[in-house]
Design goal:
Blueprint: H1 7-18, E1 35-38, E2 41-45, H2 58-71, H3 86-99, E3 103-107, H4 110-121, E4 127-131, H5 136-143, E5 148-152, H6 157-170, E6 175-180, H7 192-202, E7 205-209, H8 224-228, E8 236-240, E9 250-254, H9 256-265, H10 267-270, H11 277-292, H12 295-314, E10 325-331, H13 333-345, E11 348-349, E12 352-353, E13 363-368, H14 375-391
Parallel strand pairs: 2-11, 4-5, 4-6, 6-7, 7-8
Antiparallel strand pairs: 1-2, 3-9, 8-9, 10-13, 12-13
Bound molecules: pyridoxal-5'-phosphate.
Pyridoxal-5'-phosphate binds next to helix 4.
Length: about 400
């Protein structure tokens, strides 16, 4: 048989282009800052995950530079062999202290955490129960497990309860319930208190991926368990340093038993190089800044409340969001693309989220607030929303 081993690459890419599902990468010409330059145009940034603007914090930058000078550009190995520096251990101690958990563990990324840990927590003879809107990295982690799977409708606690009862009756060895903490497309928050209660009734393990809640929810950004006042009750709290902490890296907080088990079994942790010293030092300083400088967290929420209220009073539909992720619902994909294009022309960078990332008819602009934006910046962005929203007939 004659076979061209590479032909599919272009064919598949062309198909994506035809369906308008390919990514045209934009270039950030400067730091990820509240005001920056994208593809040559100065813009107000409304779609970065750098919620607290910590990636530009002088103390965090300095800590990273100092560690790089002192300890080098790379760590030299995976952590279980020769790449476990004192700095990596210090980050985990500081993180456990901040999150008031018994222990903590840092992975290379949030994605690597879900892909590496989930398959180790549930195997043949077990069941994983997931919210239908969980993040793609959770979905991939679940796919890597040999456990049975069940999915409940988004935030439907009645359905979760039924599935838990059913799983209990069927006598599964372990039941693992996984949900995002803050849902990244809608900005709503998982009902952690109810989920924990339901899971306790049947002895199910709870796993919250709080990537968008770390640094955002709770009195100082400690995350979802602090938000609900249920610290220590979620079995596995996962998060990331790549969003509000302004750096990169995945994290897990929970019991010492969890951490011992996780790092001895997760292949993504065991078989992938550890963070360079500059990254670990930035993570450490970011945790310290979060605990010592509450003003960033406060500004994020003040900005969020103002922006949401103003958008709503203009007549925009901001969905079920209660967090700094504020979707502006548009309905059809074209409306969302037109709104995004118009905003960009008016100096606001906020990208459309369209099918298949969200259901048909649920296209939106997803905005993410930043603590570094001033009231003038926000007013300018709101005026752009008003102008473009009216011109395309959305409001
Ligand atoms: C819920 C959730 N989990 C995990 C991730 C991945 O995190 P990281 O960037 O650290 O790989 C994201 C990022 O988009 C996310 O939203």
């Amino acid at each position: 048989m004659e076979r061209d081993p590479n032909a599919f690459l272009r064919e598949e890419y062309e198909k994506l282009k035809e369906k308008n599902l390919n990514w045209n990468l934009r270039v950030l010409e400067g730091p990820s800052a509240p005001r920056t330059v994208v593809d040559g145009k100065p813009v107000i940034m409304l779609c970065s995950n750098n919620y607290l603007n910590l990636s530009n914090h002088p103390k965090i930058i300095e800590a990273s530079i100092e560690a790089t000078r002192r300890l080098g550009a790379g760590s030299g190995s995976v952590r279980p062999i020769a790449g476990n520096m004192g700095l990596h251990m210090e980050v985990e101690r500081e993180l456990a202290r901040f999150k008031r958990s018994e222990s903590a563990l840092v992975y290379q990324t949030g994605f690597a955490t879900n892909a590496g840990l989930i398959p180790q927590l549930a195997d043949k003879g077990d069941i994983i129960i997931s919210d239908e809107l969980n993040h793609g990295s959770i979905i991939d982690g679940v796919r890597l497990s040999r456990a049975d799977k069940a999915i409940y409708a988004h935030q439907n606690m009645g359905q979760l309860e039924d599935q838990l009862r059913e799983a209990d009756k069927k006598g599964y060895r372990r039941i693992l319930v996984i949900t995002d903490g803050v849902f990244s497309m809608d900005g709503d928050v998982a009902q952690a208190d109810t989920i924990v209660k339901l899971c306790k009734e049947v002895g199910a393990m709870t796993y919250f991926d709080d990537a968008h809640g770390e640094g955002v929810l709770g009195p100082h950004g400690e995350g979802i368990s602090a938000h609900y006042g249920i610290e220590g009750e979620i079995d596995v709290e996962v998060g990331t340093f790549s969003k509000a902490y302004g750096v990169v890296g995945g994290l897990v907080a929970g019991s010492q038993d969890l951490v011992n088990y996780a790092y001895n079994t997760s292949r993504t942790w065991l078989l992938s190089g550890s963070h360079p010293p500059g990254v670990a030092a930035a993570q450490l300083e970011a945790i310290r800044v979060l605990s010592r400088e509450p003003e960033h967290h406060k500004r994020l929420w003040d900005n969020t409340n103002y922006f949401k209220k103003e958008l709503q009073s203009l007549g925009f539909d901001t969905g079920d969001s209660v967090t700094p992720i504020t979707p502006v619902m548009c309905g059809e994909s074209k409306m969302a693309k037109d709104l995004s294009d118009g905003l960009y022309k008016n100096g606001v960078f906020a990208l459309p989220i369209v099918f298949p990332m969200v259901a048909q008819g649920k296209a939106r602009i997803r905005t993410i607030m930043n603590a570094g934006l001033t009231k003038d910046d926000l007013d300018e962005a709101i005026s752009a929303f008003e102008k473009v929203g009216k011109s395309i007939g959305l409001i």
